[in-house]
Amino acid sequence: MEILDAQLHIWEDRSRRHYSRPWDENFVFDWGTTWTIERAIASMDALGVDAAVLALPPNYRATLAAGHHRYDSGYAQEAVLRYPKRFGYVAHHDHHDPEIDALLAATLAHPGALGTRVLVRSPEEWRDFEAGLFTPYFAAAERHGVPLMIFVSGRPAEAAKIARAHPDLNLIIDHLGLKQPPRMVPDAEPFQQLPDLLALAQFPNVSVKVTGMPGLSREPWPWNDLWPHYARLIDAFGIERLIWGSDITRVAELMSYADALGYVKHTERLSASDKAKLLGGNLRRILDWHAPLGAER
After folding, report:
1. CB–CB of 155/177 below 8 Å?
2. What pLDDT digit, counting tens, does each position of 115-147 carry?
3. Cβ(3)–Cβ(246) under 8 Å?
């Protein structure tokens, strides 16, 4: 069974920097280590993960301090060039950029580029969203056939506006649209907003990344209390629109990479066919990712 991880961050900076909360200059988080290309490959090899989709470093402040632009995908592109059979990536663009249409038009022409990713997190970003300032970005992605991963955690119902206005946009909801630890404080009932996510199943262009979900469990591994929520997701979206990812570079302090994969890979609650779809097949299809696999190990 091919195993693909839908989200890994990689970065080189190991110093103590501001985490990506530009609206709060007093918030500091020490990632404590690095997730280099080499570490990602070693971690994947240890578990038999065949390939992974890379996102920009989560520590934008460290990226800026290192002299790189916040939206620079250079390190992910380096990973793809070195290991073209093991990595793809999603590009990030500034939604204020007046050339956003041209940027999206060119995105998939870059080796290893599988789509784009938009994060709506800060109060300023939500004001821009509500004012329609992200609309040109969404329209360009739809027009040019670029899959779009969207982070709207804590406000999943807002994604309905995008799906409805852009029915031909391949829209992928990050992290179930729910507030997840350790970077966000979960709701009092961690899955209380799940109905808002399930309502998105009415839009055939929407799929869901089931990333970071174990962080919402109130039980030890293998997190059996997650499966009733999985059942609701499968009932609403079908297994075909769900994508597994570890996002281990964000949640490493909560779980091991092995456990983040193992609770799905070794469960008896899913058939072998459903596991193959959830753990890799769906990602290949939804992102139209046809890169050949090979050793590179």
Report:
1. yes
2. 999 999 889 999 999 999 999 999 999 999 999
3. no
Give the domain 4-286 fold: TIM Barrel (3.20.20)
pLDDT tens-digit readout, 142-186: 999 999 999 999 999 999 999 999 999 999 999 999 999 988 999
Alpha-carbon 52 to chain mean position: 11
What residue spans define the domains of the chain?
A: 4-286
Residue 279: left if φ>0, alpha if ψ -120 to 50, beta else—which one? alpha
Report CA torsion sign: 78, 84, 86, 92: positive
Report residue 72 as tokens. Answer: 């620079």
**Measured CA angle at 175 (ends 7, 244), to 5 deg:** 55
Residue 232 contacts residue 225 (beta carbons within 8 Å): no
Higher-scoring residue by pLDDT: 250, 58:
250
Which residue(s) pair with 245 in the sheet? Answer: 211
**Helix or strand run (H / E) with residue 82:** helix 74-82
Residue 245 CA to residue 8 CA, distance in Å, equals 8
Q: Provide the whole-model pTM.
A: 0.91
Q: Is 292 helix (H, G, I), strand (E, B) or coil?
A: coil
Contact 116, 90 (CB under 8 A): yes
